[in-house]
Amino acid sequence: MTSLAEQKNTLRQEALRRRRAMDPVARVEAGLALAHHAQELPLPAGAIVAGFWPIRDEIDPRPLLESVRSAGHQLCLPVVVEPHLIFRAFYRDSVFEPAGFGTYAPGADGEEVRPDVLLMPLAAFDGFGNRIGYGKGHYDKALAALEVDRKVHCIGVAFGLQEVASVPAEPHDRPLDGILTEAGYRRFSNL
């Protein structure tokens, strides 16, 4: 019998294989489509929204982030530090530097903020809001720290082909509140 970790790793590898095999033009078009669905996101007025800098063959959320900024929200990006991610505000004139795990974010002089909403990268997700990350637990640790005083709205951002039938969830796994793909926003919770 395989462990939950082994099951998750198999699902992760299968979803990432499908993602890598995407046509490059379709990949770009999907990233641009995210911006057209920005108004579907349940963002509180003036929310601080954490995006992410795309790595490898992830969907590119940067057009989406510009739409979110234009709607009046403050943006921030994650930085890999110990014991968990921190988030630094960014603006059009921010100077970026490597932020761990192949990503970029404002440097140490950037203002650290607490996001209200996390737009999260992922390897795979299911129709119940369960997600599989990249296996490092960065977002799990960050959420545990952020949600000590209040809930953070978690929205996965991915290509639709990263959906799997079922993700084996463990007790510490925090489900997504929704998912945004090139097809639009889908809500999993009542938020």
Automatic annotation (TrEMBL):
It catalyses: (6S)-5-formyl-5,6,7,8-tetrahydrofolate + ATP = (6R)-5,10-methenyltetrahydrofolate + ADP + phosphate. It comes from the Bacteria. SUPFAM superfamilies: NagB/RpiA/CoA transferase-like. GO terms for biological process: folic acid-containing compound biosynthetic process; tetrahydrofolate interconversion. It is an enzyme of class 6 (ligase). Substrate binds at E58. ATP binds at K8, N9, T10, L11, R12, R131, I132, G133, Y134, G135, K136, G137, H138, Y139. Belongs to the 5-formyltetrahydrofolate cyclo-ligase family. PANTHER family: 5-FORMYLTETRAHYDROFOLATE CYCLO-LIGASE, ATPASE INHIBITOR/5-FORMYLTETRAHYDROFOLATE CYCLO-LIGASE. This is 5-formyltetrahydrofolate cyclo-ligase. It comes from Roseibium limicola. The lineage of its organism: Bacteria, Pseudomonadati, Pseudomonadota, Alphaproteobacteria, Hyphomicrobiales.
